[in-house]
Predict the structure.
Amino acid sequence: MNVHDIHSKQDAAMMAGLRAAGSAIEPPTSLDPTTMAVRAVRNVRRRRVVVAATASVAALALTGAGIGAVGAIYADQQPLPGTVKTTSESTRASEPPASASPSPSPSGESDAAPTEYLETGGGTLPVLPVERGVVDGDGHHPYILGGLWYEVPPGGWYAVGDVNAGGVAGFLEPEHPMAMSFDPDPLDMSIDDLDATLELRNVTDVADWTAPEKDSGATTLDIEGADLVVIEQHRKEGKVRPATIRIRSGAEGWIIETRFSADAAGDTMLRNFVGNLWLKDAGEPDWYKPQFEHPTLAKIERGIPAGWQKTEHNDLTFGVPEGWTSAPTEGQFSPGVEWTGTTVTHVEPGIDAATLELWTDASEEEKKRAAEEMTSFERVYVQGGKPGGNWWSQTMSAPESQLIDVPGADYAEVQLTLNNVDGEPDYYSASIYLHQEGQGENLFLVVDFDGGKQGWQDLHAFLGSLDFRR
Protein backbone atom coordinates (compact mmCIF):
# COMPACT_ATOMS: atom_id res chain seq x y z
CA MET A 1 0.00 0.00 0.00
CA ASN A 2 1.25 3.48 -0.78
CA VAL A 3 0.84 6.91 0.70
CA HIS A 4 -2.04 8.55 -1.14
CA ASP A 5 -3.92 11.63 0.03
CA ILE A 6 -6.22 12.82 2.77
CA HIS A 7 -9.36 11.32 1.17
CA SER A 8 -11.18 8.97 3.51
CA LYS A 9 -10.70 5.97 1.28
CA GLN A 10 -6.91 6.26 1.58
CA ASP A 11 -6.47 6.41 5.37
CA ALA A 12 -5.83 2.70 5.79
CA ALA A 13 -3.29 2.81 2.98
CA MET A 14 -1.45 5.75 4.44
CA MET A 15 -0.27 4.05 7.61
CA ALA A 16 0.67 0.81 5.89
CA GLY A 17 2.07 2.60 2.86
CA LEU A 18 5.19 3.76 1.15
CA ARG A 19 7.83 3.29 3.84
CA ALA A 20 10.38 5.48 2.12
CA ALA A 21 8.13 8.44 1.43
CA GLY A 22 9.95 10.34 4.15
CA SER A 23 12.96 10.50 1.86
CA ALA A 24 11.08 12.82 -0.47
CA ILE A 25 9.44 14.89 2.23
CA GLU A 26 11.99 15.19 5.01
CA PRO A 27 15.45 13.74 5.63
CA PRO A 28 15.44 10.32 7.28
CA THR A 29 15.87 10.46 11.03
CA SER A 30 17.15 6.88 11.11
CA LEU A 31 17.75 3.97 8.81
CA ASP A 32 14.26 2.65 9.60
CA PRO A 33 12.02 3.44 6.61
CA THR A 34 8.90 2.62 8.63
CA THR A 35 9.64 5.56 10.92
CA MET A 36 10.17 7.68 7.84
CA ALA A 37 6.77 6.70 6.50
CA VAL A 38 4.99 7.57 9.72
CA ARG A 39 6.47 11.05 9.52
CA ALA A 40 5.55 11.24 5.87
CA VAL A 41 1.92 10.48 6.65
CA ARG A 42 1.93 13.27 9.22
CA ASN A 43 3.21 15.71 6.62
CA VAL A 44 0.98 14.49 3.80
CA ARG A 45 -2.23 14.74 5.80
CA ARG A 46 -3.17 18.22 4.74
CA ARG A 47 -0.88 18.60 1.75
CA ARG A 48 -2.59 16.90 -1.13
CA VAL A 49 -3.27 20.26 -2.74
CA VAL A 50 0.39 21.21 -2.33
CA VAL A 51 1.97 18.01 -3.54
CA ALA A 52 -0.39 17.82 -6.50
CA ALA A 53 1.38 20.83 -7.92
CA THR A 54 4.86 19.31 -7.61
CA ALA A 55 5.59 16.37 -9.87
CA SER A 56 8.13 14.67 -7.66
CA VAL A 57 6.05 14.70 -4.51
CA ALA A 58 2.85 14.09 -6.41
CA ALA A 59 4.35 10.83 -7.54
CA LEU A 60 4.38 9.79 -3.91
CA ALA A 61 1.15 11.37 -2.79
CA LEU A 62 -0.93 10.04 -5.66
CA THR A 63 0.35 6.48 -5.92
CA GLY A 64 -2.98 4.81 -5.32
CA ALA A 65 -6.68 5.27 -5.77
CA GLY A 66 -9.19 2.67 -6.70
CA ILE A 67 -9.52 2.41 -3.14
CA GLY A 68 -19.17 -2.36 -1.08
CA ALA A 69 -19.38 -5.49 -0.19
CA VAL A 70 -22.65 -6.36 1.50
CA GLY A 71 -22.73 -9.66 3.38
CA ALA A 72 -25.58 -11.81 4.57
CA ILE A 73 -27.73 -10.89 7.55
CA TYR A 74 -26.56 -12.73 10.64
CA ALA A 75 -29.86 -14.56 11.05
CA ASP A 76 -29.26 -16.35 7.77
CA GLN A 77 -26.03 -17.92 8.99
CA GLN A 78 -25.71 -21.29 10.63
CA PRO A 79 -24.36 -21.69 14.17
CA LEU A 80 -20.74 -22.62 14.58
CA PRO A 81 -19.67 -25.79 16.38
CA GLY A 82 -19.78 -25.12 20.10
CA THR A 83 -22.41 -22.40 19.85
CA VAL A 84 -26.16 -22.62 20.22
CA LYS A 85 -28.60 -20.20 18.65
CA THR A 86 -32.14 -19.89 19.99
CA THR A 87 -35.11 -17.67 19.25
CA SER A 88 -37.58 -16.28 21.75
CA GLU A 89 -40.86 -14.58 20.85
CA SER A 90 -40.30 -11.43 22.83
CA THR A 91 -37.95 -10.08 24.70
CA ARG A 92 -36.11 -6.98 24.42
CA ALA A 93 -33.76 -6.77 27.41
CA SER A 94 -35.04 -4.43 30.10
CA GLU A 95 -33.26 -1.22 31.01
CA PRO A 96 -30.55 -1.87 33.60
CA PRO A 97 -31.14 -0.22 36.95
CA ALA A 98 -27.63 1.21 37.40
CA SER A 99 -26.18 3.98 35.26
CA ALA A 100 -22.88 2.14 35.00
CA SER A 101 -24.56 -0.82 33.36
CA PRO A 102 -24.93 -1.13 29.62
CA SER A 103 -28.24 -0.11 28.07
CA PRO A 104 -29.81 -1.79 25.05
CA SER A 105 -29.23 -0.18 21.70
CA PRO A 106 -32.07 1.62 19.92
CA SER A 107 -33.87 -0.51 17.41
CA GLY A 108 -36.68 -0.08 14.95
CA GLU A 109 -37.91 -3.62 15.55
CA SER A 110 -41.27 -4.28 17.14
CA ASP A 111 -41.36 -5.59 20.70
CA ALA A 112 -43.11 -8.65 19.31
CA ALA A 113 -40.31 -9.37 16.86
CA PRO A 114 -38.34 -12.53 17.63
CA THR A 115 -35.01 -12.07 19.42
CA GLU A 116 -32.13 -14.34 18.55
CA TYR A 117 -29.83 -15.62 21.29
CA LEU A 118 -26.36 -17.14 21.18
CA GLU A 119 -24.33 -18.97 23.78
CA THR A 120 -21.00 -17.24 24.38
CA GLY A 121 -18.44 -17.27 27.17
CA GLY A 122 -20.46 -19.61 29.35
CA GLY A 123 -23.63 -17.50 29.10
CA THR A 124 -26.37 -16.62 26.65
CA LEU A 125 -26.91 -13.18 25.14
CA PRO A 126 -29.15 -11.65 22.48
CA VAL A 127 -27.49 -11.23 19.10
CA LEU A 128 -26.86 -7.70 17.87
CA PRO A 129 -28.34 -7.52 14.34
CA VAL A 130 -25.64 -6.48 11.89
CA GLU A 131 -24.95 -6.65 8.17
CA ARG A 132 -21.62 -8.27 7.39
CA GLY A 133 -18.96 -6.69 5.23
CA VAL A 134 -20.41 -3.17 4.87
CA VAL A 135 -17.72 -0.74 3.67
CA ASP A 136 -17.64 2.69 2.09
CA GLY A 137 -15.68 2.42 -1.11
CA ASP A 138 -14.39 -0.28 -3.39
CA GLY A 139 -13.47 -2.94 -0.87
CA HIS A 140 -12.08 -3.72 2.55
CA HIS A 141 -8.78 -2.24 3.68
CA PRO A 142 -8.52 -3.48 7.26
CA TYR A 143 -5.92 -3.27 10.00
CA ILE A 144 -4.82 -6.18 12.15
CA LEU A 145 -4.13 -6.21 15.90
CA GLY A 146 -2.78 -9.53 17.10
CA GLY A 147 -5.04 -12.00 15.34
CA LEU A 148 -8.03 -9.66 14.93
CA TRP A 149 -8.82 -7.92 11.67
CA TYR A 150 -10.86 -4.73 11.95
CA GLU A 151 -12.06 -1.96 9.66
CA VAL A 152 -11.83 1.75 10.50
CA PRO A 153 -15.06 3.68 9.80
CA PRO A 154 -15.08 5.81 6.62
CA GLY A 155 -14.68 9.56 6.54
CA GLY A 156 -10.98 10.33 7.02
CA TRP A 157 -10.08 9.02 10.48
CA TYR A 158 -6.65 9.69 11.98
CA ALA A 159 -4.34 7.26 13.71
CA VAL A 160 -3.09 7.67 17.27
CA GLY A 161 0.50 6.50 17.46
CA ASP A 162 1.78 3.65 15.31
CA VAL A 163 -1.27 1.44 14.83
CA ASN A 164 0.91 -1.23 13.22
CA ALA A 165 3.24 -1.60 16.19
CA GLY A 166 1.00 -4.09 18.01
CA GLY A 167 -0.49 -4.18 21.48
CA VAL A 168 -2.75 -1.17 21.13
CA ALA A 169 -4.29 0.92 18.37
CA GLY A 170 -6.37 4.07 18.32
CA PHE A 171 -8.15 6.32 15.85
CA LEU A 172 -9.81 9.74 15.94
CA GLU A 173 -12.93 10.64 14.01
CA PRO A 174 -12.54 13.62 11.64
CA GLU A 175 -14.42 15.94 14.02
CA HIS A 176 -12.28 15.03 17.02
CA PRO A 177 -10.54 18.19 18.34
CA MET A 178 -7.15 16.46 18.08
CA ALA A 179 -7.68 15.02 14.60
CA MET A 180 -5.92 17.80 12.71
CA SER A 181 -3.46 18.71 15.46
CA PHE A 182 0.22 18.95 14.68
CA ASP A 183 1.34 20.22 18.09
CA PRO A 184 0.87 17.89 19.81
CA ASP A 185 0.64 15.35 17.01
CA PRO A 186 -1.57 12.29 17.67
CA LEU A 187 1.02 10.21 15.80
CA ASP A 188 3.40 10.95 18.67
CA MET A 189 0.84 9.96 21.30
CA SER A 190 -0.92 6.82 22.51
CA ILE A 191 -4.49 5.98 23.49
CA ASP A 192 -3.42 6.50 27.11
CA ASP A 193 -2.79 10.18 26.36
CA LEU A 194 -6.26 11.13 25.09
CA ASP A 195 -9.81 9.85 24.64
CA ALA A 196 -9.73 8.39 21.15
CA THR A 197 -12.93 7.65 19.27
CA LEU A 198 -11.79 4.09 18.73
CA GLU A 199 -9.39 2.28 21.08
CA LEU A 200 -8.24 -1.32 20.76
CA ARG A 201 -6.13 -3.36 23.14
CA ASN A 202 -4.74 -6.84 22.55
CA VAL A 203 -4.59 -8.67 25.91
CA THR A 204 -3.77 -12.12 27.25
CA ASP A 205 -5.22 -12.07 30.78
CA VAL A 206 -8.56 -13.40 29.57
CA ALA A 207 -9.05 -16.78 31.24
CA ASP A 208 -11.62 -15.49 33.73
CA TRP A 209 -13.73 -13.57 31.23
CA THR A 210 -17.40 -14.50 31.33
CA ALA A 211 -20.55 -13.24 29.70
CA PRO A 212 -22.89 -10.98 31.71
CA GLU A 213 -26.46 -11.93 32.53
CA LYS A 214 -28.88 -12.54 29.71
CA ASP A 215 -30.99 -9.51 30.61
CA SER A 216 -28.07 -7.16 31.31
CA GLY A 217 -28.51 -5.23 28.08
CA ALA A 218 -25.32 -6.66 26.59
CA THR A 219 -25.41 -8.34 23.19
CA THR A 220 -23.17 -10.70 21.26
CA LEU A 221 -22.20 -11.62 17.72
CA ASP A 222 -21.10 -14.80 15.99
CA ILE A 223 -17.42 -14.32 15.08
CA GLU A 224 -15.88 -17.51 13.79
CA GLY A 225 -13.09 -18.71 16.05
CA ALA A 226 -14.16 -16.62 19.07
CA ASP A 227 -15.42 -18.33 22.22
CA LEU A 228 -16.61 -15.07 23.80
CA VAL A 229 -18.01 -11.93 22.22
CA VAL A 230 -19.68 -9.34 24.45
CA ILE A 231 -20.92 -5.94 23.25
CA GLU A 232 -21.92 -3.52 26.01
CA GLN A 233 -23.41 -0.18 25.03
CA HIS A 234 -23.29 2.29 27.90
CA ARG A 235 -25.44 5.27 28.73
CA LYS A 236 -24.95 8.52 26.85
CA GLU A 237 -22.16 10.90 27.73
CA GLY A 238 -23.29 14.12 26.13
CA LYS A 239 -23.40 13.54 22.38
CA VAL A 240 -21.47 10.27 22.67
CA ARG A 241 -22.62 6.76 23.48
CA PRO A 242 -19.61 4.72 24.62
CA ALA A 243 -19.48 0.99 24.03
CA THR A 244 -17.13 -1.78 25.14
CA ILE A 245 -16.52 -4.88 23.04
CA ARG A 246 -14.71 -7.90 24.45
CA ILE A 247 -13.58 -10.72 22.18
CA ARG A 248 -11.73 -13.86 23.25
CA SER A 249 -10.22 -16.63 21.19
CA GLY A 250 -8.47 -19.17 23.38
CA ALA A 251 -5.72 -17.39 25.32
CA GLU A 252 -5.89 -14.18 23.29
CA GLY A 253 -8.36 -11.38 23.80
CA TRP A 254 -9.25 -7.89 22.68
CA ILE A 255 -10.90 -4.99 24.48
CA ILE A 256 -12.34 -2.38 22.13
CA GLU A 257 -13.71 0.93 23.35
CA THR A 258 -15.80 3.01 20.95
CA ARG A 259 -17.14 6.53 21.37
CA PHE A 260 -19.50 6.89 18.45
CA SER A 261 -22.23 9.53 18.35
CA ALA A 262 -25.40 8.90 20.38
CA ASP A 263 -27.74 8.88 17.39
CA ALA A 264 -28.83 6.63 14.55
CA ALA A 265 -25.63 7.32 12.60
CA GLY A 266 -23.50 6.29 15.58
CA ASP A 267 -25.55 3.15 16.11
CA THR A 268 -25.10 2.19 12.45
CA MET A 269 -21.36 2.89 12.72
CA LEU A 270 -21.10 0.55 15.72
CA ARG A 271 -23.01 -2.23 13.95
CA ASN A 272 -20.93 -1.88 10.80
CA PHE A 273 -17.74 -1.86 12.84
CA VAL A 274 -18.52 -5.11 14.69
CA GLY A 275 -19.91 -6.61 11.48
CA ASN A 276 -16.44 -6.28 9.92
CA LEU A 277 -14.51 -8.02 12.71
CA TRP A 278 -12.92 -11.37 11.94
CA LEU A 279 -10.12 -13.54 13.26
CA LYS A 280 -7.04 -14.33 11.21
CA ASP A 281 -6.84 -17.95 12.35
CA ALA A 282 -10.40 -18.58 11.17
CA GLY A 283 -9.56 -17.48 7.63
CA GLU A 284 -11.13 -14.87 5.39
CA PRO A 285 -14.94 -14.82 5.67
CA ASP A 286 -17.07 -15.15 2.56
CA TRP A 287 -18.18 -11.52 2.74
CA TYR A 288 -14.63 -10.15 2.79
CA LYS A 289 -13.67 -8.39 -0.45
CA PRO A 290 -10.24 -6.80 -0.04
CA GLN A 291 -9.48 -3.49 -1.65
CA PHE A 292 -5.82 -4.50 -1.61
CA GLU A 293 -4.20 -7.85 -2.32
CA HIS A 294 -0.53 -8.75 -2.30
CA PRO A 295 0.22 -11.25 -5.08
CA THR A 296 3.45 -13.20 -5.14
CA LEU A 297 5.75 -12.31 -7.99
CA ALA A 298 6.33 -14.92 -10.67
CA LYS A 299 9.72 -15.77 -12.14
CA ILE A 300 11.58 -12.68 -13.32
CA GLU A 301 13.46 -12.88 -16.63
CA ARG A 302 16.52 -10.64 -16.94
CA GLY A 303 16.97 -8.15 -19.78
CA ILE A 304 15.10 -5.35 -21.51
CA PRO A 305 12.27 -6.59 -23.80
CA ALA A 306 12.43 -5.91 -27.51
CA GLY A 307 10.78 -2.62 -28.40
CA TRP A 308 11.23 -1.13 -24.94
CA GLN A 309 13.21 2.06 -24.30
CA LYS A 310 16.41 1.75 -22.30
CA THR A 311 17.14 4.54 -19.83
CA GLU A 312 19.26 5.29 -16.76
CA HIS A 313 18.99 7.31 -13.55
CA ASN A 314 21.58 7.57 -10.77
CA ASP A 315 23.41 4.46 -12.04
CA LEU A 316 20.16 2.44 -12.28
CA THR A 317 19.51 1.13 -15.79
CA PHE A 318 15.98 0.05 -16.65
CA GLY A 319 13.52 -0.20 -19.52
CA VAL A 320 10.04 1.22 -20.13
CA PRO A 321 7.49 0.33 -22.82
CA GLU A 322 7.57 2.02 -26.19
CA GLY A 323 5.70 5.32 -26.31
CA TRP A 324 6.28 6.28 -22.69
CA THR A 325 7.52 9.81 -22.02
CA SER A 326 9.71 11.17 -19.23
CA ALA A 327 9.90 14.34 -17.18
CA PRO A 328 12.40 15.42 -14.53
CA THR A 329 11.18 15.86 -10.97
CA GLU A 330 12.60 17.54 -7.92
CA GLY A 331 13.83 15.45 -5.01
CA GLN A 332 14.89 15.90 -1.42
CA PHE A 333 18.43 14.71 -2.07
CA SER A 334 18.79 14.55 -5.84
CA PRO A 335 16.61 15.11 -8.91
CA GLY A 336 14.21 12.32 -9.82
CA VAL A 337 12.49 11.23 -13.00
CA GLU A 338 9.00 10.07 -13.88
CA TRP A 339 8.15 7.99 -16.93
CA THR A 340 4.46 7.99 -17.92
CA GLY A 341 2.58 5.63 -20.21
CA THR A 342 -0.67 5.99 -22.13
CA THR A 343 -2.81 3.44 -20.26
CA VAL A 344 -5.06 4.85 -17.54
CA THR A 345 -4.69 2.91 -14.29
CA HIS A 346 -7.23 4.74 -12.15
CA VAL A 347 -9.09 7.99 -11.63
CA GLU A 348 -8.64 9.68 -8.27
CA PRO A 349 -11.78 11.46 -7.04
CA GLY A 350 -11.40 15.01 -5.82
CA ILE A 351 -11.47 15.89 -2.14
CA ASP A 352 -15.02 16.44 -0.92
CA ALA A 353 -16.17 19.88 0.21
CA ALA A 354 -16.60 18.86 3.86
CA THR A 355 -12.98 17.72 4.10
CA LEU A 356 -11.70 20.80 2.31
CA GLU A 357 -13.40 22.96 4.94
CA LEU A 358 -11.00 21.47 7.48
CA TRP A 359 -8.03 22.73 5.48
CA THR A 360 -7.83 26.12 7.14
CA ASP A 361 -4.21 26.61 6.08
CA ALA A 362 -4.82 25.94 2.37
CA SER A 363 -5.45 28.67 -0.18
CA GLU A 364 -8.58 28.75 -2.32
CA GLU A 365 -6.49 27.85 -5.36
CA GLU A 366 -5.05 24.83 -3.57
CA LYS A 367 -8.53 23.72 -2.50
CA LYS A 368 -9.79 24.12 -6.05
CA ARG A 369 -7.03 21.87 -7.40
CA ALA A 370 -7.66 19.31 -4.67
CA ALA A 371 -11.35 19.13 -5.55
CA GLU A 372 -10.60 18.21 -9.15
CA GLU A 373 -10.69 14.63 -10.38
CA MET A 374 -7.24 13.36 -11.34
CA THR A 375 -6.49 10.72 -13.92
CA SER A 376 -3.46 8.50 -13.31
CA PHE A 377 -1.55 6.55 -15.95
CA GLU A 378 0.89 3.68 -15.92
CA ARG A 379 4.18 5.05 -14.68
CA VAL A 380 7.64 4.54 -13.25
CA TYR A 381 8.83 7.11 -10.73
CA VAL A 382 12.43 7.11 -9.50
CA GLN A 383 13.49 9.15 -6.47
CA GLY A 384 17.15 9.52 -5.61
CA GLY A 385 18.45 9.26 -2.08
CA LYS A 386 22.10 9.60 -1.07
CA PRO A 387 25.09 7.35 -1.70
CA GLY A 388 26.39 5.52 1.33
CA GLY A 389 25.17 2.73 3.55
CA ASN A 390 21.93 0.91 2.99
CA TRP A 391 18.92 2.85 4.27
CA TRP A 392 16.43 0.04 3.92
CA SER A 393 15.43 -2.88 6.12
CA GLN A 394 12.69 -5.32 5.28
CA THR A 395 9.41 -5.08 7.15
CA MET A 396 8.94 -8.75 7.88
CA SER A 397 5.32 -8.27 8.97
CA ALA A 398 4.34 -6.61 5.69
CA PRO A 399 2.62 -9.22 3.51
CA GLU A 400 3.46 -7.24 0.38
CA SER A 401 7.22 -7.31 0.99
CA GLN A 402 9.28 -9.51 -1.35
CA LEU A 403 13.03 -9.54 -1.96
CA ILE A 404 14.31 -9.90 -5.52
CA ASP A 405 17.72 -10.10 -7.19
CA VAL A 406 18.92 -7.03 -9.08
CA PRO A 407 22.40 -7.04 -10.63
CA GLY A 408 24.65 -4.56 -8.85
CA ALA A 409 22.35 -4.19 -5.83
CA ASP A 410 22.95 -5.68 -2.40
CA TYR A 411 19.37 -4.87 -1.35
CA ALA A 412 16.25 -4.98 -3.52
CA GLU A 413 12.79 -5.11 -1.99
CA VAL A 414 9.43 -4.95 -3.76
CA GLN A 415 6.21 -4.16 -1.93
CA LEU A 416 3.53 -5.16 -4.39
CA THR A 417 -0.17 -4.34 -4.10
CA LEU A 418 -3.05 -5.21 -6.38
CA ASN A 419 -5.74 -2.56 -6.03
CA ASN A 420 -9.27 -3.89 -6.50
CA VAL A 421 -12.55 -2.17 -7.28
CA ASP A 422 -15.73 -4.05 -6.35
CA GLY A 423 -13.71 -7.23 -6.05
CA GLU A 424 -12.16 -6.91 -9.53
CA PRO A 425 -8.48 -6.11 -10.28
CA ASP A 426 -7.88 -2.44 -11.09
CA TYR A 427 -4.13 -1.81 -11.12
CA TYR A 428 -0.83 -3.02 -9.69
CA SER A 429 1.27 -0.67 -7.60
CA ALA A 430 4.79 -1.51 -6.44
CA SER A 431 7.14 0.36 -4.13
CA ILE A 432 10.73 -0.69 -4.78
CA TYR A 433 13.69 -0.07 -2.45
CA LEU A 434 17.19 -0.44 -3.85
CA HIS A 435 20.72 -0.03 -2.56
CA GLN A 436 23.71 -0.23 -4.85
CA GLU A 437 26.36 -2.58 -3.58
CA GLY A 438 29.22 -1.11 -1.60
CA GLN A 439 28.60 2.49 -0.59
CA GLY A 440 26.38 3.12 -3.60
CA GLU A 441 23.08 4.88 -4.25
CA ASN A 442 19.89 4.51 -2.24
CA LEU A 443 16.90 4.70 -4.56
CA PHE A 444 13.22 4.07 -4.25
CA LEU A 445 10.74 3.69 -7.04
CA VAL A 446 6.97 3.79 -7.39
CA VAL A 447 5.64 1.73 -10.28
CA ASP A 448 2.01 1.47 -11.47
CA PHE A 449 0.75 -0.92 -14.15
CA ASP A 450 -2.73 -1.88 -15.28
CA GLY A 451 -4.39 -4.69 -13.31
CA GLY A 452 -4.91 -6.93 -16.34
CA LYS A 453 -2.77 -9.69 -17.83
CA GLN A 454 -0.66 -7.28 -19.88
CA GLY A 455 0.01 -5.11 -16.83
CA TRP A 456 1.18 -8.17 -14.87
CA GLN A 457 3.56 -9.11 -17.68
CA ASP A 458 4.88 -5.56 -18.05
CA LEU A 459 5.49 -5.31 -14.31
CA HIS A 460 7.66 -8.42 -14.40
CA ALA A 461 9.43 -7.19 -17.54
CA PHE A 462 10.24 -3.92 -15.80
CA LEU A 463 11.62 -5.68 -12.72
CA GLY A 464 13.71 -7.87 -14.99
CA SER A 465 15.18 -4.80 -16.68
CA LEU A 466 16.60 -3.32 -13.46
CA ASP A 467 20.40 -3.23 -13.40
CA PHE A 468 22.39 -1.33 -10.75
CA ARG A 469 25.87 -2.26 -11.95
CA ARG A 470 28.23 0.68 -12.35
User: Anything to note?
Assistant: The two ends are 31 Å apart (CA to CA).
